[in-house]
Amino acid sequence: MNKVFLLIIMFVASCYTNAQVVRTVELTKDDDLSVLLGDDKYKLEAVAVTGYLSHANIKVLNDCKLNGMLRKLDMSGCDVEDGLIPDYGFRGYMSSSAWFTSLKLPRNLETIGEGAFTYVHVETIDFPSTLRVIGNSAFFNASVLKSIIIPEGTIEIGDRAFCFCIVFVYK
């Protein structure tokens, strides 16, 4: 009986310590994401953003990725400022462990800027149908990219946009 009780406690403790910290955040134009995330911002493993995503708040998400545990980012329920992920908006560093297992881009996204995800290891990316332009070196060295599906309406893919993507299936 004591062994069974001990096993149950160990199982529950294991589940608790392995649970992902997930946060869904509804943003307006005036919101400061850093304030809304508070002390948890470097502990979050998954964030879903809805509402309006400003370029300033993209910097906050990048900080969570570079200096915290953020690995899953869902922006598919938001509109990004000017329909644009700015140049180097989510840029990592060659020596960093910046990594997304899952990346869902904003529903109104038209342009991914130059180097926007350079040195960010990404496993899966969901592009919105509104995407028109993928900038130069946008996913340069996104080395674990498994596959992508470029939306039909995309009219420009910049030089070296997917350079050094080790595993790459293009559809």
UniProtKB/TrEMBL annotation:
InterPro entries: LRR_5, LRR_dom_sf. The keyword Iron does not apply. Keywords: Signal. Residues 1-19 form the signal peptide. It holds the Pfam family LRR_5. The keyword Signal applies. This is Leucine-rich repeat domain-containing protein. It comes from Xylanibacter caecicola.
